[in-house]
Amino acid sequence: MTTRLSAFLRFLELWDGFLFTLVNMSYMTVDELERYGMERMDDEEIQQLLTTQDYGILALPTDGAPSMRPLSFWFDGDDNVYFLYVSGDSSKKEELSRRAEIARFLVYRIETTFNWRSVLITGRIEPVPESERPEIEEQADIPWKPDVFRRAMESEPTSLYRLKIDEQSGIKQLELPPELRTEESGSKPN
Questions:
Q1: Which of 24, 154, 174, 189 is the 20 to 30 Å CA partner of 116?
Q2: Exposure string (b/e) for 41-67, b if CB count within 10 Å is 16 or more?
Q3: 78 pLDDT exceeds 50?
Q4: Structural domain boundaries of the chain?
Q5: Rounded CA gap, 150 and 86, in Å?
Q6: Residue 16 banded pLDDT, cuts 50, 70, 90
Q7: What string of DSSP letters covers 2-36?
């Protein structure tokens, strides 16, 4: 593994679920935060979030800090996430995707400060071969796209990319706000 890739992966590990917690000037682990209400998500919950969300943050390695881009996506229900890029003449995102040995994608849903979920997936990103593209695009449903990209896709070339999920993890907090907690309910909703 290259030094650049190692540094990139270490940087992203710190973002596990995009939560930094400073206590006594140190980072707390998910295990340590469980006593405060954080929980790990199981595979079914991870699949559900990937199926119900439309966008996330793609992180690709660079020579310096990772390149992070918000993107709409489609999850195939198995082990692949797909992204449709507007290619253009000099797409930095496409260039970095082609060079990447590994990528990460963060998907999250935040309802309140007491009710949120976050999934981090890691895997190999690759362009989908043209021979596979029509079948995948027929199944893919990417309902949310910023209007500027929707309009650009009508006249500009596009590329379809697949992130093959090798690793996945999820964390969540599903609690009641303090003012709604009772002795009977504790912090958990009924």
A1: 24
A2: beeeebbebbeebeebbbbbbeeeebb
A3: yes
A4: 3-176
A5: 9
A6: very low
A7: -HHHHHHHHHHHHTGGG---EETTEEPPHHHHGGG
Concatenated DSSP letters for 117-181? EEEEEEEEEEEPPTTTHHHHHHH-------HHHHHHHTTS-EEEEEEEEEEEEEEEEE---GGG-
Most confident of 19-33, 34-48, 135-149: 34-48
d(CA 186, CA 174): 12
For 103-118, give the DSSP string.
EEEEEEEEEETTEEEE
Model pTM score: 0.77
CATH superfamily of 3-176: Electron Transport, Fmn-binding Protein; Chain A (2.30.110.10)
pLDDT in tens, 96-145: 888 998 999 999 999 888 889 999 999 999 999 999 988 988 888 766 56
Rounded to 5 degrees, φ, ψ at 161 are -115, 150
